[in-house]
Amino acid sequence: MMQFKNIAQFFHRTIFINIKPRLLVLGFFLYTPLLFPNTTLQSLSQSYDLEKISKSFTWFRLMDQKNLDQNKAEYFLTNNGSKDINHLSELRESLKLLTGKDSEVLKFHCRFPARTIYLQSIFKEIPKLAPKNCPKYFAWTKENSIKSISFIFVNGYLENPASFFGHTLLKFNTNEKNDNLFLLDSALNYGANTNNDPALPYVVRGLFGKYKASLKAENFFRISAMYQEFQMRDMWEYTLQISDYQKNLITAFTYEMLEKEYQYYFLSDNCAYRINRIIGLATGIDPMPNLPWSSPMDLLHGLKNKNLISAFNYFPSQHTKALLKIRTLSPDERSDFYKFENNDVSLSSISNATKIALLEDFNYQKLKAFKKGKKDILIEIDNQRKNILLSIDGNYKAKENYQPLPPTESNLPTLIKHGLGYINKSNFNKSESFYALGLRGSNFSLLENDEYRTRNSEFKFLSSELSISKHGLRIHDLTIFKILSANDRDLYLRNESVFSWGVEVGRRQIDGSCFPCGQNYASGQLGKGFYVNSSTTALFLSHLTLHDNKKLTGNLSTGISLMLIKRNKNNKYLFKYHDTNYSEFNRWDNEAYSFVFEKSISQSQALNISFKKNKFANEVLVSLKKYY
Predict the structure, then answer these.
(1) CB of 567 within 8 A of CB of 597?
(2) Under a CB-based contact definition with an 8 Å cutoff, are residues 119 and 92 in contact?
(3) β-pair type (536-547, 556-567)
(4) pLDDT tens, residue by residue, 204-213
(5) Measuring CA to CA, which of 276, 312, 365, 597 is 20 to 30 A from 438?
(6) In whole angstroms, what is the distance from residue 58 CA to residue 283 CA?
(7) pTM of this prediction?
(8) Could you give the CA distance from residue 291 to residue 618 in angstroms, rounded to a whole number?
(9) Is 178's pLDDT higher than 60?
């Protein structure tokens, strides 16, 4: 009996203990496909509405066909020479590869990481993207170390008409600490491939889409050197308030964009337009308003209005750094500063603050000499810099510089002006009331609150002034292009221009009392601005204008302008005298006086009251300016 029991225990251990686990493992592999079937395109088609997904905002943006040069077939999976991509077919082909062989999945991940990230957020069944398995993409993500993404705004560059609007770019931050390691971060710069064309041909060709453009990745220290040092432009960095998913989607999408070329349009498909589309892909809505033009200022305000940006970092140009350091000096220190420049005082007798200001000034002079290729001056400047550096007290802490209001605090960029006016035409002894309408794109005028730009400057592009009266609709002024720089400051650096200047092209009426008296014109101005104090400027300009020979005016006129500009926080005043002399018939020679008062109500509203008087007419206009 005992022997039989032992035999029974032996079979129990052999069958149920040793064989049962093997049976369970075998059963798992036999029945798992029934419980969790293999993911295929067909199974996804049954579980999800592929047509709806293919029509989504994000999927359309991932295709990125707007002004895309589609000569390269590798941009898409289903492109058979057609410019119109079938979004549903492209989605189905993407899912087919993502549910195929391991080699096909990996190839798709590395080629289309943005598509992969987006599709993974919807289809939980498809394999996850592992950046390490894609060497090029892994390198692009800085080995998966990107902590955040910043939007950078570069202010306008008055020496180049192509840069008056400002510039935008993105920066990928790998270091959250506030140290100089940020200079090693990557930045994305979108621009036209112009072959170094001069400014005027660039603008003309850019207006008609004659350039290709692409996204280029550079280290931020190169971007900083180009804008802050060589072009002397200030920059503001704003960290984007986005999730990790949105950050990863932007990182992946820009990686795909690096291989693409687009048709460049100066006013509409430019840096602001492309950066707007990149950010919009991640957030699900474009931050920039849908306008006929695209400007950096429109994009910046759009990001602010949608709460997509936070605190900023300010990067002053070398020119600004030098001016700021000189302004921190006391009157005696500033006197020593200029004495040292004239070799009238030694280093040992001046303060550390003065030495720091001199050092920043020499840094500025060095950059100017480098741009002009003056090697002998560079050697002399370096010797001066070395002597100053060796003489500064190592324990000295420099004063912090004044930080201007950021561009997000300026007036909103697009203007619509509504006004009611009254004009008395003295030469005809007639008077009438009228409604005035002004339209202006993303520019700025002389009296607006834009501290980030050059003091007392003006830039208009495609701006118009119209009126409606009992005589119907009249176009008084159409400005194609206008720039004015009073160039008035409390101090100038060595070898800086001290002159005021302006350029203007457009069509206007000879005088408010004459209609239709439209005249095409191109005018240049040169003069001098006088800094009275921080709130007051006097300006003198001489004018030379070429125009149509309308009403026997001839094709040439000259003139002078005298202006006094006064401003405080909310109120601005402009007094102006203008004298015009025509070359052919002096009937139209004119002296005009005007006074403008403008009160800022908010970033989006201002009240404007103007009075104009000349020998032909007197005019009063009250306007409400609305900024968008």
Answers:
(1) no
(2) no
(3) antiparallel
(4) 898 899 999 9
(5) 276
(6) 9
(7) 0.86
(8) 36
(9) no
